[in-house]
């Protein structure tokens, strides 16, 4: 059975490679968004927003290298990363921000798909409608932010708690204690929001995708090329929404099991945060392939040609309704 030292040795090699590779992919993705998304309209900014959330998530995971000692109640959160020298209040705040980035990234995918549906259903969507829709989808994020502020003020901010943790960390060299996660009502609500968002996101996206495909099939005057590009864009977003379900949700099932049974599973403790960051590596690849303008440009840079689709059209555009 692997020991703590084995996991730490592996992660000391894996984390730098994972970080550098993911940053390169995210940078390429951002460059494509900035320079090759002129026809994507508002989707350009939402996709860029998703990328920024991913980069923030990646930096927090690698620089702090959090670990949950989930076999203890309350759960002790430790940091093994280079930023473990920061104050406990700062580390705890960053730990909570990390959870917000996960939730925000998932919401961005849903918003992108729903805006796509809106552009297909209506010839023109007003700015007010889009702003209100954007805010409505972010209600879970606003609630989660409120929970985070409450937890910071009650669990990390009190002076006696900071002094107690600082005293414990004074003699620690391998890690620093970030804080304790107590199974209180607000913590459980925050947990339900983040994990629930991960679980529900693919189902919501698949539902929106079904409506989009239904609309596309009804537009008889749209060319097959146009429909193919819209479908490819939507499929890519749907796949992205499902990625966290396979990387993130299983770890939190193990976390729930460990907390309720007080069982120690080191794999879960060390990899629960890395599993949350894996989409940061995968999503740029998915986007660069399924967004036709990106794929065509990437293949062009590699000296190849994409013959699957002809002329590039705007993925943000609607489709003229067929006249009956």
Automatic annotation (TrEMBL):
Which controlled-vocabulary keywords does the entry list? Membrane, Receptor, Transmembrane, Transmembrane helix
Where are the bilayer-spanning segments? 12-35, 42-66, 97-115, 127-153, 188-212, 233-258, 270-292
Where does the record place it? Membrane
Q: What's a Pfam family this protein contains?
A: 7TM_GPCR_Srd
Q: What is the membrane topology listed in the Swiss-Prot or TrEMBL record? A: Multi-pass membrane protein
Query: InterPro entries per the record?
Result: 7TM_GPCR_serpentine_rcpt_Srd, Nematode_rcpt-like_delta
Q: What is its main location?
A: membrane
* Transmembrane helix as UniProt keyword: yes
Q: Does the keyword Transmembrane helix apply?
A: yes
Q: Which GO terms describe its cellular component?
A: membrane
The entry sums up its family as follows: Belongs to the nematode receptor-like protein srd family.
Mind telling me which PANTHER family this protein's record contains? SERPENTINE RECEPTOR, CLASS D (DELTA), SERPENTINE RECEPTOR, CLASS D DELTA
- Its name, as the record gives it, is Serpentine Receptor, class D (Delta)
What species is given as this protein's source?
Caenorhabditis elegans
